[in-house]
Structures are given as structure tokens and as C-alpha cells.
Design a protein that fits this description.
Elements: E1 9-14, E2 22-28, E3 31-37, H1 42-59, H2 67-74, E4 76-78, H3 84-96, H4 109-112, H5 127-134, E5 142-144, E6 148-151, H6 163-174, E7 180-184, E8 187-191, E9 195-200, E10 207-213, E11 218-223, E12 228-231, E13 234-237, E14 252-259, H7 262-274, E15 285-290, E16 294-297, E17 302-306, E18 312-313
Parallel strand pairs: 16-18
Antiparallel strand pairs: 1-9, 2-3, 3-7, 4-6, 5-6, 7-8, 8-11, 9-10, 10-17, 11-14, 12-13, 14-15, 15-16
Helix pairs in contact: 1-3, 1-6, 6-7
């Protein structure tokens, strides 16, 4: 399954309508990206392109030559001081493992590769094969040592749910002295200035809502409505349950999370899509969109503006 990334999140404008004079656009990690700033030097543009190129060569599980593919194939790689990609892979795996649980697991690759949502005629994977592959899905099969990464019990890693956020954070940190917007496949971080951001409507064209994304904060969205297919009147979406091998049956169609880290926002958006009854960190905000067109908004989101009359704001609270 070759992942395609959709912009679930759209930037409307900078608060105060500050003009952006420099912009980079392209495609990386199977996702469109856009980085805009008041000013970008040639050196900064080169450094950002290098980060994105390194991310492709490191994290792409569908590229046989990538560092991640080599780990998945050989079940072990050496992390040396001379291998920047191996060091970067170690960093992102190390940062992801504390978030792994029954709803989010970076060792989902044995299952995710069976679901091809981009095929002309997608099919549901064979149930017997799914059950066999589920045996390899367990984040505890990932072993990190000072100079090595090991995979036990035929485990394989898929970083599709975290890599964009990781690189978004990395580029934002690099531009920390600038006023900028970093947008990697719809995972967005505001640098140096508040911006107005909006979430795409799950069922209608245009935006569902807008809100203020404070400087230094990131937002990411997980949703079931754009990458899916229907077989025999049953719709299957791309957010897979690591315990069953099938898509989660969620009451939500999308969850957007706002927090300091873009990578953490990516992970929490996926986790809370599957189960909103997670520990609620008061430094994290979220927007939940339910199947019956209700929107639950946490208290800390500023200047929230509902843009579609087909939806209503619920008084339900996230505990």
C-alpha cells in the first residue's frame, strides 16, 4: 500500500495579514509540503530541501533502499556517528515508543502493507493472512541499544503516522528565528507568530471551522473520510486497529489535535480518533467531529469559528 497524504488541514492566513515573501512547495514523504516565511535565504532553502530529502531516504517503508526498509528486511541496523539517517531513525523510533499502546503501534507494518487503499479496485485482505501477520505487531518487539536497533519476532515498522510531524518539528526548530508556517502533508506548525488555521469539512467542500493556532504550536488531523473504499456496502478506512488488523470502528470522522510538538499532534490525533477516553493533558487541545455532525471543542482553543451550518457544537466535554 503506497500511502497518499491528503490535506486535512488548510491554512487560511496569518493573523494580522502579515505578508509572506518567501515560499517553498514540493512533494516529500508521499505528501505535498509548503514552507512560507518572511524571508528564506538560499542556505536555508538548501538546508530544508536536504532535511526533506533525507527524510525520504530514511523513513519510506515502500522504498527498498530506505534506512527503514533495510531495518525491516534485516531486522537490525547499526547506528554509527557517520550515518545520519540511522541516527535520525533511532531518534524517531525512540520518541515514538512511549506513545505506543493498544491504539497506536509503530510495528503495524505487517498489517498496513496488506491494505492497498490506492489500488484501482481495492480489496479487503484475506482474514487468515491478517491474523497471521498480527502476531508480529507489538511495539515491545523493538529493541534500542546505544549503537543498534533490533526487531524481534518478525516485526516491521511503519512510520507513516509520525514522520511528517517529526520533520515538521525539525524544520520549525531550524526556522525558530523566523516568522514562518511549516506545512508537511497537512501537519502544520506556526513559527514566531499566531496564525488562523482551518479544518477541512469531512462531508462538504471548503472548511469546517477556523481557529487561532498560537506561535510555537502545531496541529494535525486524523480522519476516516478521504482514504477509504467500500466493498459489499462496507466502508473501510486507513486507520487500522493494531489488535484486529481491521479499521477502527470510531464514533468520529475526524480528530484534530493542537500541541507543542507536531509529531505528538500526529500521534494523538490517531490515538484519540480510536478512543477519546485517553489521559487529557491540559497543554493539548482537540477538535472532535462525530459521525452525526457534532463538534466537540476543548476549552483552550481560541477564536473557534464554525463555518458550516450542517454541523453543531456539542456541549459534551472531554474529560
Amino acid at each position: 500500500m503506497k500511502k497518499t497524504i491528503i490535506f486535512l488541514l488548510c491554512i487560511l492566513c496569518l493573523t494580522g495579514c502579515t505578508k509572506k515573501e518567501a515560499e517553498m512547495q514540493g512533494f516529500s514523504m508521499d505528501a505535498p509540503y509548503r514552507i512560507s516565511a518572511n524571508e528564506l535565504t538560499k542556505e536555508q532553502e538548501h538546508s530544508i530541501k536536504t532535511m526533506l530529502k533525507d527524510a525520504d531516504s530514511c523513513f519510506d517503508a515502500y522504498q527498498e533502499s530506505s534506512t527503514l526498509s533495510q531495518l525491516n528486511h534485516h531486522k537490525k541496523i547499526t547506528v554509527s556517528k557517520d550515518d545520519g539517517n540511522a541516527q535520525m531513525l533511532y531518534q524517531i523510533i525512540s520518541a515514538s515508543l512511549p506513545f505506543c499502546n493498544q491504539y497506536f503501534d509503530i510495528t503495524i507494518r505487517p498489517i498496513s502493507k496488506l491494505w492497498d487503499f490506492n489500488a484501482d479496485k481495492p480489496v479487503v485482505p484475506d482474514n487468515t493472512v491478517l491474523k497471521q501477520n498480527l502476531r508480529a505487531v507489538d511495539w515491545r518487539n523493538v529493541i534500542l541499544e546505544d549503537d543498534f536497533i533490533y526487531l524481534e519476532n518478525e516485526a516491521e515498522i511503519d512510520l507513516g503516522a509520525v514522520a511528517k510531524g517529526y520533520i515538521c518539528d525539525k524544520i520549525a526548530d531550524y526556522l525558530t528565528q523566523e516568522v514562518a508556517i511549516v506545512d508537511i502533508g497537512g501537519t502544520v506548525k506556526a513559527v514566531g507568530e499566531d496564525i488562523t488555521a482551518g479544518i477541512k469539512s469531512p462531508t462538504l467542500d471548503g472548511l469546517l471551522c477556523s481557529f487561532t493556532l498560537p506561535a510555537g504550536k502545531a496541529v494535525a488531523t486524523s480522519g476516516s473520510y478521504e482514504r477509504n473504499f467500500t466493498v459489499d456496502n462496507q466502508t473501510y478506512h486507513h486507520i487500522i486497529n493494531p489488535k484486529t488488523g481491521y479499521p477502527f470502528d470510531s464514533e468520529f470522522v475526524s480528530v484534530s489535535v493542537i500541541c507543542d510538538s507536531a509529531m505528538e499532534a500526529d500521534i494523538l490525533a490517531t490515538t484519540w480518533f480510536c478512543d477519546e477516553n485517553q489521559d487529557y493533558n491540559k497543554n493539548v487541545e482537540a477538535i472532535f467531529v462525530t459521525k452525526d455532525n457534532k463538534i466537540i471543542v476543548t476549552d483552550g482553543i481560541k477564536n473557534f469559528n464554525l463555518l458550516h451550518t450542517d454541523y453543531t457544537i456539542s456541549n459534551e466535554k472531554v474529560e
